[in-house]
Amino acid sequence: MSLPLDTIQKHFDLHPKPSTLQFQYGTAGFRTSASVLDSVLFRVGILAVLRSKKLDGKTIGVMITASHNPEPDNGVKLVDPRGEMLEASWEHHASTLANADTFGDFVEALELIIKSTKIELSKPARVVYARDTRPSGPALIAAFEDGLKAMGLKGRDEGVKTTPVLHYLVRCINTKGTKEEYGEDSETGYMMKLSSAFKKLVAGKPIPQPLIIDCANGVGGPTAELLSTYLGETLPLINLNTATKTLGALNNACGADFVKTTQRLPPSLSSVLKPGQRACSLDGDADRLIYYYLDERNQFHLLDGDKIAALVAAFIVELVKSAGLEGTIDVGVVQTAYANGASTKYLSERLPVRCVPTGVKYLHHAAEHYSVGVYFEANGHGTVLFSPSAMETLAGHIPSTPAQSTALNHLINLTHLVNQTVGDALSDMLMVEVVLAHKSYSGIEWDSLYSDLPNRLVRVVVKDRNIFKTEDAERRLVSPQGLQAKLDDVIKKYDGGRAFVRPSGTEDVVRVYAEATLRPQADELAFKVAGLVYDQSGGDPLTRPK
Ligand code: G16
C-alpha cells in the first residue's frame, strides 16, 4: 500500500506553511502564536495517523493546548498509547514534517519516516483528540482533521477537555478488555473513578472547610464543576475564575503560573479568601496545581509543587511502613533545578531524590525507576507513579494486623486516585486533600514542613534563546562560552546563593532562577544574572532587566 498522494496534496495546499518560520517539537510539543500554527496542525494530523499505524493501530492522543501561555498562543502535542508523552525519537519526525517547505519536501520527509521506522501503511489507525478553551481551538482542530482526512481517517473528537483527561482516555481506550484496564473511557468515568477513590480515602474524616479553586478561566473550570457533582459533600469546592468565554481572560492575572511566578494571590481572590482558608490555582489546561493561604496578618504563603511533593512523599512513606512493606517498596522523588534548595534538603534527608531537566517526560521517566516515584516540578506539574511490581506487591500482600490492612487499603486507593499517565491538577488536589485530612493539617502545618529559601524567577527577552545551552540537569550553562564563569563570580557573593539560566521550551524567552538566604539578596541576584544574560544576547540597553 502506498500513500494517497493526490488526497494529501489536495489538503496540503489548503494549509500553507509560513515560509520564514521554523517550528520545533519541544518539551510540550509545538507551541507558539496560534496565528502561525495552521500548517503544523494539518501535518500533526498526518503524523498521528502514522504513529498509530506504527503501533499496530493503537490509539494515539492529540491535545491542542498552550497550557499556561497567554491566550493568543496555542500548541499541540501527541500522546502515546499508555497515555505518556510521545516517544522522544518521534519528536524529530514531528519537527521535520512541520518544517518541509514544499509538497515535494513533505512527501520526501513522509517517505523517509515510513521507511526508517518500518511503518506498514495497510495497518489500521486510531486517533483521539481534544482541545482547551482557547478561541483559536476550533480552526486549529479543523486543520488537524484535514490531516486525518488526507490519510482517510475519522478520529474520535473529544471536544473541550483538560490535558490530563485526554491522557487518561488514551490509556483507557488502549487497555480496555486487558488485565491492565485503566477505567471507563469517558470524562464522567474518570470523575467517578477519582471521586470514588477519594471518598474511600477520607471515610470517617471530618468534612473540611470549602476549598477555593482558581480555574484560570480555562478548561479546568467545567471539569472542576463536574468533579464537584461527584464529590458531593465530601469536599466542598468553590470554583472561581471560570469565565471560559470571556476574551482575554485565560491565564490573565490568575492561574498556577501567575501565582507561582509573582508569588502573590490572583487579584480576583483578594476579597474572597479568608485568613487560614485553603485555595489552589490550576493552569490553562489543568495539569498544574499550586496551593496557597493567607495567614492571620493577611500574608500570602505559597504551597507549590515542591511542598506538594514533600507532603505526599512523606505520607506514602508512612503508609508503606504501616502496611509492613518497608524494604519491599522503595519511594523516591524526582525534581528539577527549580526545586527550592530547602525542599531538596528536606526530602534528601528522608528519601532518594534525583534532579532532571525541565519537562514532564524527563521527570516521568526518572520516576519510573522507583517502586513508587513521586515527581513534581516546582511550578505544580506532577504525579505519583506506582510501578507494575509495586502494583503486584500491593495486590498480593497479606497484612498481618488491622493497622497494616488499613494502610494497605489506603495505598491501593491512592493508586486509583492518582493519574498514572500524567500530572492532573484535580487528581493532585484530591491527593493533597486526602493527606491534609489524614494528618489534620491546615495550610499552616503543611507549610511548616520546611521554610522555602527566598527565590525569584525572571523572564529575559533575548534576540536568540537558542544560543543558551545547558548541562548538569540545566544547572550550568555551556554556551554562550564564558557566561557561566561570570555567573559563578556573581553567585558566590551571595549567602546561600544559587542561580541558573535556561532557555524556555514553551515561550520565546530565557528563564533565570535565583535563591538566597535573604529575600532582597535573592531578588538582587536574579536581576544581576538576568542583566548578564541580557548583555550576552546583545539586547537593547533600554530594555535591560533592572
Ligand atoms: C510545560 C512543560 C513543563 C514545563 C513548562 C515550562 O508545561 O510540560 O514540564 O515546566 O512547560 O517550561 P519552560 O520553562 O521550558 O517554558 P505547560 O504547563 O506549559 O504545558
From TrEMBL:
Free-text cofactor note:
Binds 1 Mg(2+) ion per subunit.
Q: Name one GO biological process term.
A: cell wall organization
Cofactor(s) needed by this chain: Mg(2+)
Q: Where is the Alpha-D-phosphohexomutase alpha/beta/alpha domain?
A: 59-98, 120-177
**Keywords (A to Z) from UniProt:** Carbohydrate metabolism, Cell wall biogenesis/degradation, Isomerase, Magnesium, Metal-binding, Phosphoprotein
Q: Which positions are annotated as binding Mg(2+)?
A: 67, 283, 285, 287
Task: Tell me the enzyme class.
Answer: isomerase
Q: Which InterPro entries match?
A: A-D-PHexomutase_a/b/a-I, A-D-PHexomutase_a/b/a-I/II/III, A-D-PHexomutase_C, A-D-PHexomutase_C_sf, A-D-PHexomutase_CS, AMG1_II, AMG1_III, PAGM
Where is the Alpha-D-phosphohexomutase C-terminal domain positioned along the sequence?
479-530
The pathway this protein participates in, as annotated, is: Nucleotide-sugar biosynthesis; UDP-N-acetyl-alpha-D-glucosamine biosynthesis; N-acetyl-alpha-D-glucosamine 1-phosphate from alpha-D-glucosamine 6-phosphate (route I): step 2/2
Q: Does the keyword Lyase apply?
A: no
Q: Which PANTHER family match?
A: PHOSPHOACETYLGLUCOSAMINE MUTASE
Under which name does UniProt file this protein? Answer: Phosphoacetylglucosamine mutase
